[in-house]
Amino acid sequence: MREAMERPIAERVRTVLARGAAGAIEAGMLRRPLRSARVRDDGVIVLVVDVGGMSREAGDVDRVAAAGATATVEIVDTVCTGRCRGCAPRPSFALDGRPASCGAGRGGAGGGGRAAGGDDDDCAVARGVVTLSGIVTASSPARRRRLVTADGGGTGPNSEGGSLRLSELQPLEITYLTADGVHVVPRASLAAAAVDPIGVDEQVWLHRLAADTGLASRLALRAGRQIAGTDPRIVAIDRYGVDLRIGSTGGGFRDLVRLPFAQVCADSDDVLAQLSALTR
């Protein structure tokens, strides 16, 4: 984690938000799911809030992320490493648009070691928690959304997928919590930060790299690590390098090893070239 924190925190936070990562939003006593939060170039954060199922009679819908309200957004920086997917393809999302849980309908790595439908506790890797606190400056009316399945039908009796609201948050405090502590990110730094072109698609990259079952072991050997009795795994990738987690098969120890790229990558060709160089 220490090596990861040497890279710009503002860039990490903006990349997490650029993924459309979901989380939760609190406004007073109300807490609702957050579908996504994205940063505009002026530093304002656009929120997509799920207000479906709330009481319209009590006015709860109108109070959630409404203009003039204070709100706190919490997003966990986490990705699926692809370990739960085994060799068979499956969608990474459910019909309602939410991410599918790791290991759903699959038994851990390679489909073994767990009962069908069980989750692989080591599949999802969390790096930190993004917290955004501020004032909602604008908000749209709650709008119902209709979900359509592949055959053209709806997902429920009325084909309703809940209600969404767009809100604009003027952030007053932005923090990123990691194992090393709390990092405060100035609003201007977040607005000026670039989105990591590799990190924004990190989960796609991890699934792709997990398909090469020997890649992590080759990288570990290249890093000078002994791999006998261990289970090396690639748990992070960005434009600066890759992270390996090397742990004993019995669960006795775990080490996080950073393998930096020789150059900062701008696209997939750069990444593939750097990975090839690291395994020679």
Explained architecture:
The two termini are 26 Å apart. A six-stranded antiparallel beta barrel has the order 1-2-3-7-5-4. Strands 9-10-11 form a three-stranded antiparallel beta sheet. With 280 residues, the chain is α+β, with helices and mostly antiparallel strands. The protein is built from seven helices and eleven strands.
The helix/strand order is HHEEEHEEEEEHHHEEEH
How does the overall form come out from the CA principal axes? elongated
Q: Give the tally of structural domains.
A: 2
Strand line-up across the major sheet: 1-2-3-7-5-4
Distance between the termini: 26 Å
Number of helices: 7
Average pLDDT, all residues:
77
CA-based gyration radius: 21 Å
CATH topology of the largest domain: Pnp Oxidase, Chain A
- Helix-strand category: alpha+beta
CATH top-level class of the largest domain: Mainly Beta
Runs in which pLDDT lies below 50 for 5 or more consecutive residues are 1-6, 55-59, 87-99, 103-120, 147-160
Quaternary structure type: single chain
Q: Examine the secondary-structure arrangement and name the CATH architecture of the largest domain.
A: Roll
| Proportion of residues in helical segments | 10-25%
